[in-house]
From TrEMBL:
Name recorded for this polypeptide: DUF2213 domain-containing protein
Domain of life: Bacteria
Organism: Gluconobacter frateurii NRIC 0228
InterPro entries listed in its UniProt record: UCP029215 (IPR016913)
Amino acid sequence: MLLSVTDRLSLTDATRTTRDGYLLVDARIARTGIQEYLGSEMGRPDLGTVRVYRPENEVFSQDAMSSFIRKPVTNDHPREMVTAATWKDTVVGMTGDEVVRDGDYVRLPFMLTDQSAIDAVSNGKRELSAGYTCDVQFSSGSTPDGEVYDAVMSHIVGNHLAVVDRGRAGHACRIGDAWTAHSTTTKGRTMPDNLRTVIVDGLSVQTTDQGAQAIDKLLAQIGDASKKLSARDGEIAALTDRHSTALSAKDAEIAQLRSAHDGAIAAKDQEIADLKASVPDAAAMDALIEARSGLISVARKALGDSYVSAGRSNMDIRRDVLTKRLPAADVAAKDEAWINAAFEALTLDNASASANVDPLRQTLSGGLNAPSGMNVGDTAHNAYTDHLQNAWKGAEGTR
């Protein structure tokens, strides 16, 4: 894993000021051994801290040491590694050419050329922090001295050197020895007097008052963000429930519409089938046409050739004939059964069945006068009565 990392060390008292006001320093800038980093610095935000081991062969390799030659010096670390694009806004000095090993440390000279950075050093800002890239292999183990580590660092490439308030590698890497007046010694290491211990996610972190305030602010912001996230999760859950309910209701509505549609289609199919079944075949159609033609022929003989049958049903035509033939019978008030029976009565050959004489035709030929000895009204009444008595046998008259 390739990372951009910063270390912190303190400057020695090997300092002097040039006639131009620049500050020349000879300082330790890096060391071997184990240093602790935040998990976020190592690309592992899931871890609180990571103990990183830097072996001697990596720290003091020719490539690693020479990578710090003629590199920019900054007042605190910039947000990103220094490049030509950011040089003007970040650089306050420059490292020299003579990089050497000093025990467990890397030492090199550098010069501060910015007055504000020089003033900061004069006011007690004396520790150093190296900014570099490296490879980190997460692999647990222990050093030759028995110290346990979580990861191993290799392929160190220097980018810049920063003057900071407090360095990671300890106060052995600092500018001058004036820092001692502002610090106390704890377990062999010098620590600032105004450090506070802050608990962050169950971990104890030592920091300044300003750092503690910043941590408290960040923790409060994280708490607020968590509350907002929980509220938003609740809103999302409510919206999801409403969406599911609306979707279920719409599905039910669609099912009802589909059922109604299917029912309507089935009813229409049945209607079409019924219509098809009611359509007579060719033979039946011929019989109907022949019967219709005969009925119209009879009607025109009774009512005259000018009689218009168009638009009149068979029953209407029978009524027209009977109305003409039986004006006193109140034909308009009679039902269809009476009409059929009366009309049939006019065509009966009760007088001479063997001679096959058509009474209606005989009547019509005589000017609609009843044949001798034949009472049409009585005959119609008798035919109607006979029809009612025999209708159950299926002897209904043709309409």
